[in-house]
Amino acid sequence: MRILKFGGTSVANADRLKEVIAIIQQSADSHSNLAVVVSAQSGVTDELEKLCELIISDKSKADEIVKNLEQKNFAILKELLPVAQLPASMAEVMSMINELSDIVKGGSLVGEVTARTKDLIFSFGERLSAYVISEALKTKIPDAIFADARQFIRTDSNFGYAKVDFATSNKLILEYFSKHNGLKVVTGFIASNANGQTTTLGRSGSDYTASIVGAALNAQAIEIWTDVDGVMTADPRYVTEAQSIAQLSYNEAMELSHFGAKVIFPATMQPAMAQQVPIWVKNTF
Ligand code: ASP
Ligand code: MG
Known about the structure:
Oligomer: single chain
Order of helices and strands: EHEHHHHEHEEEHEHHE
Number of strands: 8
Bound molecules: aspartic acid, magnesium ion
C-alpha cells in the first residue's frame, strides 16, 4: 500500500487535476495498491470560513459563495468527464450543494453558526474535491471510488481541532479498506465523533489524514504532493538560497519545523513515525 496525498494547489482546477491524474496513473502502473488523499481545492476552505460569518451577516453573499463552489466543481467535471458520465456526477455535486444550502439557510434562520456546524460546513470542501477527483479518475482507473473519511476516522468532539481516537480509527480503516475494493480517493481533514457528527483535524489537516491512513494500513510509503521542492532549508519565497534536503529523519524534520519549515507539521508525522512509514515530499509542478 502506498498513499499519495495532493494538497489544495495540486487539485485547484481541471488543468492541475489532469496532471494529478497522470501522476496517479503512473504510480498505479508500478504499484498494485494505492490510495489517494486530497484537500479541498485551494482557497475553498478559506471561502467556507468566510461563509460561516456571512450566514449571519449577509445571507445573499453567503449564497453566492455556495453558488461559486457549485460552478467550480461543475466546471471541473465538464472539462474532465465524458459527456455520458456528466449527468450523474453533476447530480451528486448538486445534492451536496443542496445539503450545504440547507445548512446555510438553517444557520441564517437561527442566527448562529456553532463550532459543530462550522466543521460540517468545512467538510464540503474536501467532500466535493474528493468526489470530483474520484469521478475524473474513473475515466482512467475504472475502479476508483470516493471514500468519505468520516466513515473511518474517529475523533473526540473538540470541533475545529478534534483529537483522533487511534484505537477505533485504525480498526475502522482496516475494515473499510478490506471491505471496499478499488482505488480510494479519501477526503483529507475531516472525520467524525462517536455520534457520527462531522469533525475536523485542524487547518491543513489533510497531511495528517494521509499519515493516519498510511500508518493504519502499514503503508510502504506516504507521498505528500505539494507545490514546493520537498523539505527545504528555508522558505524559498523569502530566501533565494533555500535548498531542498534530500533526506532527513523524523526527528530532524520535527526540529526543522520549529525553525519555520512549514512543509510537514510534527503532529502529522507522528502516526507515520510510530509505524516507521517513510514520507516523501514531492512537487506536483
Ligand atoms: N482544506 C483544509 C485547509 O485548508 C485542509 C488542508 O488543506 O489540508 O485547512
Ligand atoms: Mg488547504
